[in-house]
């Protein structure tokens, strides 16, 4: 048995988000706007009656999860596999600064080609390969009535969800990034997990359609 709904939730805004800096695993806190975003989003997600709550251990995700924990009484379960991509010595740069120092690497990233971040960081593929199993662990041993929430990071969530769903890497760029404190809602169906909503900031509504997804 697995959970009945999986919510993958990006953290609230940080000062580095506002400055368009590459964060990676630098442990940057939420700014005042990010705290307000997390509080508002948590109030909406609490109405889904979540039964388990997982989070990256980086403080911007942990603080976001903490707002939901405060409303629901759930214990936050931390998993390092839910961290953002490791960008090593690129942390704190803007993409323009990166392009000025490492133009070939920046060009490969923009074109979607494989590129390790920094001297000893990760590739996008490596992030997906650690993140997707973390989602599988989060939903195992659940019940159809369960809603599991995972507080995490933008790039890691995007590529990890794609791999979790079995989407070929060539199609990953078709899935846009997540806004601060928005989420992806996934549901189990006849043929595995499927996307209910992507980059959502409001609660899922029933689908009235002749297309019976389940």
TrEMBL record:
A Pfam family reported for this protein in Swiss-Prot or TrEMBL: His_Phos_1
Coiled-coil region(s): none
InterPro entries according to UniProt: His_Pase_superF_clade-1, His_PPase_superfam, PGM_Phosphatase
SMART domains, alphabetized: PGAM
Stated name of the protein: Histidine phosphatase family protein
Lineage summary: Bacteria, Bacillati, Actinomycetota, Actinomycetes, Propionibacteriales
